Amino acid sequence: MLTFTPEQRRRFAADIDGDYRPKTKKTIALVGLMGSGKTALGKRLAVALSRPFVDSDTIIEEETGLPIRNIFEISGEAKFREIEHKTILSQLNGSPVILSTGGGAFCNPNTRAAIKAHAISVWLDAKPTDLLHRIGNTSSRPLLNIGDPLKILDDLRQQRMADYLQAELHVKTGRHSLRLSMKKMLNILEKNSYIEVLSNKNDK
Ligand code: S3P
User: Fold this and answer.
1) pLDDT digits (tens, 9 = 90+) for 44-82
2) How far apart are CA 168 and CA 164, in angstroms?
3) pLDDT for the residue numbered 167
4) Which pLDDT score is estimated for 200?
5) Is residue 57 lining ligand 1, measured as CB closer than 6 Å?
6) CA-CA distance, 85 to 146, in Å (whole number)?
7) Rounded to the nearest 5 degrees, what angle is found at the Cα of 129, between the Cα atoms of 128 and 135?
8) Which of 10, 18, 142, 165 sits at 20 to 30 Å (Cα–Cα) from 72?
9) Interior/surface letters 8-41, b for 16+ CB within 10 angstroms, e for the rest
C-alpha cells in the first residue's frame, strides 16, 4: 500500500476537478495494457476518493524482493501469473482500495473471475502508439523486450481485447491529459452510482 507525501497529494489533487465520495464499499480495480495509465490515474483516483492505492506489481516486487523482469527471467511467466493471482486475491479480501493491476492480470481467467466478483473493474484503453508513447523506456517490461514493442503491444491488444471487454466500465485514455482522463473516469463512476460528486470545481 502506497502512502503519498503531502507534495504528491497536492500534485495529484491538481488533476481532480471536484470533491468526490465513494458510494461503494468495493475495491476499484484498474485493468488494461501497459501504459494505459493504471498507475498514474489510480494514484489520482485514490486521492480523489480518500482510499489507499495499491499496485499489484509493486507488492509482488516487495514480497519477492525481485523486479518483475527478474521474476520472468528466473521463474517464467506462468509462475509470475500464479504469484500475481495470489497477490490480487489477498488484496480483494481486504478493505477497499484503488487497485492497479498488471496488464495481464485480467486475462488470467481465475484472476478475472475474482476481480469481477469482488471489485468494480475499470478497463483503461488506448491505442498501441499512445501506450508506447506513455511507456517510454521499455526496459522494466519483460514482454516488450522480446521484439518490436509497438508490434507486441498491437498483438497483445488484439489477443486481450475479449478479456478487457469483460470489465464492468470502460474509459478511453488515449493521449489525453491526466486531468481529462480523470474527469472521464470520475464521470463514468458517478453515472454508475459508484461515487457521488460533492462539489465541482467548475461550479465554484
Ligand atoms: C504485464 C504488465 C506489467 C507487469 C508484467 C506483465 C503484462 O504491468 O505485470 O510486466 O502482461 O501486460 P503494467 O501493466 O503495470 O506495466
Assistant:
1) 999 999 999 999 999 999 999 999 999 999 999 999 999
2) 9
3) 98
4) 84
5) yes
6) 24
7) 85
8) 165
9) eeeebeebbbbebebeeeebbbbbbbbbbbbbbb
Determine if ligand 1 sits within 6 Å of the CB of residue 32. no
Residue closest via CA to ligand 1's atom 12 equals 103
Shortest-distance Cα residue to atom 16 of ligand 1: 34
- Residue 96: predicted pLDDT: 97
CA angle 89, 92, 95 (to 5 degrees): 145
| 42 ligand 1 Cβ < 6 A | no
Per-residue DSSP letters for 78-133? HHHHHHHHHHHHHHHTSS--EEEPPTTGGGSHHHHHHHHHHEEEEEEE--HHHHHH
Residue 138 Cα, ligand 1 centroid: separation in angstroms? 11
| Probe target for ligand 1 pocket from 79, 99, 141, 173, with the most ligand atoms within 8 Å of CB | 141
77 backbone dihedrals φ, ψ, rounded to 5° = -65, -40
Residue 48 near residue 144 (C-beta atoms within 8 A): no
Query: What is the 8-class DSSP label of residue 192?
Result: T
DSSP 27: E
DSSP readout, 48-72?
Answer: HHT--EEEHHHHHHHHHSS-HHHHH
- Assess contact for 63 and 87: CB atoms under 8 A: yes
